[in-house]
Amino acid sequence: MPAVLVLLVLLVLAVVVILAKTVRIIPQARAGIVERFGKYKESLPAGLNILVPFIDKVRYLIDLREQVVSFPPQPVITEDNLVVSIDTVIYFQVTDPVAATYEIANYIQAVEQLTMTTLRNIVGGMDLEETLTSRDEINNRLRGVLDEATGKWGIRVNRVELKGIDPPPSIKDSMEKQMRADRDKRAAILTAEGERQSAILTAEGSKQSAILNAEGDRESQILRAQADREAAILRAQGEGQAIQTVFQAIHDGQPDQSLLAYQYLQMMPKIAEGDANKVWIVPSEIGRALEGLGSTMNDLKGIPQEVDGPRVRVDMGPTDVPTEAERDAGLKATHAAVEEAIAEARKSSTTSPDKAAKADRAEPPAQEPPAQ
């Protein structure tokens, strides 16, 4: 009985081992390389596969997905003899599992070495500044070389990226100084442009202010001149009307010699007014004026008993403010009336020259008193 049990156990174990060697499950996006007696037989797809136990063997399991490999930084010498450290990232995919298995022993290491050598060739023809600013060009050229070289290995390089380009510390310091100098230069240029714009705007504001002030002064002077002109015209019109009124009133009153002598005596105290008038001269006609005044006080001769009133009334003009044309016409009319009145006065004064001559012969002129 124990022997039968041991036999059954061994039989079950044999069946399990045979099934394990016969049935093989390949994961998705993988490929199994099957060898029979050390020779390639076939590639197993994803899923359940049946093998001949103890004869067929899955030698390699190849990943068909896109893979990312980052290589450590490598020193590279540029055209201007500067050593820079460059690390790269490769994106590749196995397209032929058989070629990737039997054409190359370690395709990842091969891609790394090929990347480094190709990168040294590309960067060796560039200077430092071009290397730092030509990442896309380096990536495209590197990808083209790698894709061409790895095609026979069953590998397709999809993308190559330069993860970092590190120049020497001294070059970094110089680059920082240059960048700082460029920024200081741009800041100085922007400051100068701002000051220039500010000065231009200030000058334009001053110009506009001066223009507006000049225009305001000009308009103010024009308005002031027009006001002075109108005031002078109105003042002249008023003086002309006042002269005409006084002149007309004198003629309407028909003054005689006695009235004129009386007015003459009233004006004499005004002549002597003032602290500076220490000496004044009595005119020679003072005697005749006093005689006329005496006869006037005694007999009131020359003064009419009844006054008929003025013969002509003076028109004072309209009370409204006239226009410029009306003011000019009024001034002309006033000047004409004044000239006419003066002419009439001169004509009337020449009608009695004999009477004035007789008065001169009747009494000689009085002697002027000595100055006090």
UniProtKB/TrEMBL annotation:
Region spans: Disordered: 302-372
Compartments in which it is found: Membrane
A GO CC term attached to the entry: side of membrane
Keyword Electron transport appears in the UniProt entry: no
Superkingdom, taxonomy of origin: Bacteria
Gene3D superfamilies: Band 7 domain
Entry keyword Lipoprotein: no
Domain Band: 21-179
Keywords linked to the UniProt accession: Membrane, Transmembrane, Transmembrane helix
Main location: membrane
Membrane topology: Single-pass membrane protein
Family stated for the protein in its record: Belongs to the band 7/mec-2 family.
Protein name: SPFH/Band 7/PHB domain protein
Phylogenetic placement of the source organism: Bacteria, Bacillati, Actinomycetota, Actinomycetes, Propionibacteriales
